[in-house]
Amino acid sequence: MEKKIAVIGAGNVGASAALYLAEANIADIVLLDVVEGMPQGKALDLTEAGPVRGYNSRLTGSNDYKDLKSCDLVVVTAGVARTPGMSREDLLSKNSGILDKVVEGIMGNCPETMILVVSNPLDIMTYHTLKKSRLAKNRVFGQAGVLDSTRFRSFVSMELGVALTDTQAMVMGGHGDTMVPLPRYTTVAGIPIAELMPEERVQALIERTRKGGGEIVQLLKSGSAYYAPGAATVDMVKAVIRDEKKLLPASVLLDGQYGLKDICIGVPVVLGAGGVEKIIELDLGKEELAALHKSAETYREILKSMGY
Prior knowledge:
- It is a single chain.
- By secondary structure, the protein is α/β, with parallel strands linked by helices.
- The chain has 2 domains: 4-142, 3-Layer(aba) Sandwich (Rossmann fold); 145-305, Alpha-Beta Complex (L-2-Hydroxyisocaproate Dehydrogenase, Chain A, domain 2).
- 43% of the residues lie in helices and 20% in strands.
- The protein has helices at 12-24, 38-53, 92-109, 122-133, 145-160, 199-210, 212-220, 227-241, 286-305; strands at residues 4-8, 28-32, 59-62, 73-76, 114-117, 140-142, 167-168, 171-172, 180-181, 187-188, 191-192, 246-255, 261-272, 275-279.
- Strand 8 (171-172) and strand 9 (180-181) form a beta hairpin.
- Helix 1 (12-24) packs across helix 8 (227-241) and helix 3 packs parallel to helix 4.
- The N and C termini lie far apart (40 Å).
């Protein structure tokens, strides 16, 4: 295939993303991990599923960053997964160190690529990756709002007993407990959810969305979500590789939009072949804007502790 994508981190999220990418038939895929044999084994297993699942993407497993050469897009899922009682911010020191090595490997072998960050704490790691890589700000972005929005959509579907695919949602802010779900931009077949359920149920679904990742961590007891994060990641990858000009929420560097500057946080953007081609500024209400700024300040304090 003409396009080439790398997924760094062959754990549950990375392997799920690789599977969904293969089924999309949009690019050849390199699955890279530091554990010897694991990415090779998973890539071979995925290749052997191709004749049945109907895809022709070429999958390669590797422990060597040299195999990233000529990648159009690199998806970074590497890092330690959350465990019960652990916040995304608790992962900071471990995963920032891991991403230092990852970014060095990427920039040493495919310096013209784009980077989609999935590692947690997402917004912090996106900013860290942007600064370490020194890539243009449109070429580094994080997967946050797509996952949070699809969780919100799922909860709306479950609440109302409607088709999952009839729902749409918009979630802004950080990928954590301070995220900002926007119910007035959340609909079923174009109908705002406020017209379909009482306000107390809307607020209950917002709260469940904020804690959506933690809910799964508590249920699994030894790990975190991977099917939905993998699917959300591929939605963004397809927008770039296919040049779909798709409007999706993503963690990106802001430069005055929404009154915020020099911080990565989730806002609606247009994703296409140029990466982040446009940042969309919604007309937020006073409370919505305040919630977004509160979310941003949470991450700004963490960045300060990292020396930014």
